[in-house]
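Hi F.,

I've been meaning to write this up properly since the lab meeting, where we talked about keeping a consistent format for the predictions we share between groups. The idea is simple: the sequence comes first, exactly as it goes in, then the C-alpha cells exactly as they come out, then a line or two of notes. No screenshots and no reformatting. I'm using this chain as the first example so we have something concrete to point to.
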Amino acid sequence: MYGILHILTSWLQPDASSGLAAPSATPAKAPGMLDGGLANIGLMVLMMVVFYLVLIRPQQKKQKELDALLKQLKKGQKVRTSGGIRGEIVDFKSEVGDEVVLMISDRVKINILRSHVAGLVEQGEQEQKT
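Output, unedited:
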C-alpha cells in the first residue's frame, strides 16, 4: 500500500525540466517496508495470544470445572439452577441420568436437566435463604 502511494505522489510532482508530471524511472523502496510488514504480523500474533490468555483459556477452565461438578452430583446436595432456582437433589431420572429431581419447597418437586445446574449452594447462601 505504501509503495503504491509513493509512486502516485512521485508522479504528481512536477518535473523540473518539462513542467509535466512523469513517473520516476526507478521507484524508491519505501523505508522499512519489509520491517513494517513483519511488525504488523507480529502485532497480530501478539493480539491473538493475549486474546487467548484473557478470554478463551479462562472460559475453557471454567467449563471443565462445571463439567466435573455435574458428574459428581449426589442426592442431598443443595444446588442452584441456571434459572436461579435453588433446591435439594432428591433423585436422578432417565436411563443416562441426565435429569435431576429437585425439591424446592416442602412438597414441590421439579425435574430439570443436569446441564442446567449452575453450581452448588454455599453455606452463606443457605443462611440468607432461611
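Notes:
The chain has two domains: 2-70, 74-129.
The two ends are 68 Å apart (CA to CA).

If this format works for you, I'll send the rest the same way.

G.
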